Amino acid sequence: MGGTRAFLAGRPILLQAALDIAGAGLVWATFAQVENPDVLLHVVWVVLALDAFAFGLRVTAVRILLASAAVVAYSTVAAADPAMLTLDLEEWPLMVLIAVVVAVMADRLSAVSRRYAGLYRQASSRLLTAQEDERHRLARDLHDGVGQTVAAIALNLDAAEGALRNGDVDVASALWSVQRAQRLAGFALDEARGVAVRLRPPRLAEAGLVAAIRELADRSATFVAVAADPSLARPGLLPLDTEVEVFRIVQEALANALRHAATDKLWIDLRTAAGRLEVEVGDNGIGFERRHRETGLGLAGMAERATAIGGELSIQSIAGSGTRVRLQVELPWPATASSQPAGAEASAIGDA
Questions:
Q1: How would you classify the pairing of strands 266-273 and 224-228?
Q2: Which residues contact 345 (CB under 8 A, 6 or more apart)?
Q3: Confidence (pTM)
Q4: How far apart are CA 197 and CA 201, in angstroms?
Q5: Which has fewest Cβ within 10 Å: 152, 263, 285, 293?
Q6: CB neighbours of residue 196 within 10 Å
Q7: Separation between Cα atoms, residue 48 and residue 22, nearest integer Å
């Protein structure tokens, strides 16, 4: 209906002029007795209904009043002139009511369309903002992590070169600088791999979402328990772009728990229910109050990611009672009958 109305109103001036000309022509034909006046005035109300559908009540109200005045004028003239056919006015109030209802519905449709268009623009803007923030974080990680480490490697190699070029060769100092450069190179490699994983975890395409989440838990700095329905542990569980977004949401939820929850128990559960993948990241930590949800912890970014893939995200947290982040995404294949990970494989994963 919205698309049809947009098509009709695509050239509003021309369309309005055409409808006005058609209405005026039909009124003239009614007074000229070109055809049965009841038929002609019924067509006038059809034109008014189209006008109401395309332009709403504000524009159509004046035309409804003009058409009503034309009906009254014709009835007055016909009563004084026996040669003119009289009108059946029983349907006239119904025609007015139909035109008004169509106009009101069109106005409501237009308001809803504008509202959803605004929400879509807002969601797109927030998603772009989240992506831009992620790019800034990656750039900062590269500069502050890999970049600084590589600079330190260069300084240590310069020191080793200086010791070797010294007339009194300081082998111990040169060896120490080289060894330190080697250690720093290992750190830089780990940091570069971490950035690469944040860009697109390679395990997603190779072994699937469950394996990538297990690897994410394995790299965490505290105890994490991962439980998954065995039917989910395969590559291609979801479209790759969707799997990336699910992974990012889990990654953000896990990072929030590690940074803020002060917890001694952290878990990630993956199961199927009613044709959907359900992922839960939970902890028994300190939780957070509702007022923090809109200002921090990356919750807005997680919500935007969930919306982008057609998922549903819910966050339950009570101060002092822990937090649970649940994501539901439609599966492209039939779910198992069980909604719980019966016989699910679980792993307790400690420090990396």
A1: parallel
A2: 227, 228, 230, 233
A3: 0.45
A4: 4
A5: 293
A6: 12
A7: 10
